[in-house]
Structures are given as structure tokens and as C-alpha cells.
Amino acid sequence: MSSANRPVSRPLSPHLQVYKMQMTSVLSISHRIAGVALSAGLVWLVVWICAAASRGGWYERVAAINGSIIGKICLFGWTVCLFYHLFNGIRHLFWDAGHGFEIKDAERSGWLVLAATLVCSVGCWLVAGTMR
């Protein structure tokens, strides 16, 4: 077998053991995960709306699930995913317009996305809690 046809023993592309994760790659992966979580949350929202429109005790059952500790954690996580996906999507729109590609700008906008997500998620739940 000639040396040109021998299998290469090194990785052909960067992988997690070689490649150091950067903020932009972590946020990109998180953006996709948040999109999937939003889809699952949307299914639950449809169940909730259908329960509200139905007769019987369906709405009470769904409200009991939403009011439980696990339900509140899931709803808070869905809120975090919603705001994160929104703000990171806005960040991507700026990138599509050609802004923010410098490494320091990308890092700064990533931290801004995370801060805005945290502030808006907690603020939304605080406002919702005072409306009761």
C-alpha cells in the first residue's frame, strides 16, 4: 500500500477533545437547544389552551401541573429559552447585517445576550408574581 493510500491516524476534523470551545460555539449550540425546548413548550402551551377550552376538569389538572414545583421550573426554563432565543436571534440579525464579527465584539454581545436573558426572565416572573 502506498503512503498516499494509508489511513490517517489523526482526526480529520476538530472535535471536542482537540477543539477548545469558544463562547460563540457554546451560544450557537445553546441557541439550537433553546429552539427545541421552545417547540416542546409550545406543545404544552397548546395542551394548556385546549384544556382551558374543554369541559370537565382538564384545565384544573393542567393548572395543577403548572402550579407544582416541577411545573414552575419547566415554565421558568421555557421563559429563559424564549428570551435567550429572542436575544440571540437579534444578535444573529446584526451578524447578518455584517456587524459584530470581531472577537471582542462577539464576546461582548454574547455576554449581553446572557445578561438580557437573565434580567428579562427574572423580571417577567417577578411581574407575573405581583399580578396575582
Q: Could you report the average pLDDT, rounded to the nearest whole number?
A: 90
Helix content: over 70%
Rg, Å, rounded: 22 Å
- Main pleated-sheet profile: none
Report the principal-axis shape. elongated
**SS class:** mainly alpha
Order of helices and strands: HHHH
CA-CA gap between termini:
76 Å
Ranges where pLDDT stays below 50 over 5 or more residues in a row are: none
Strand residue percentage: under 5%
Structure description:
By secondary structure, this protein is mainly α. The protein has 4 helices and no strands.
List the SSEs and their pairings.
Layout (H helix, E strand, L loop, with lengths): L22 H31 L4 H10 L1 H28 L6 H28 L2
List keywords for this structure.
132 residues; mainly alpha; 0% strand; elongated
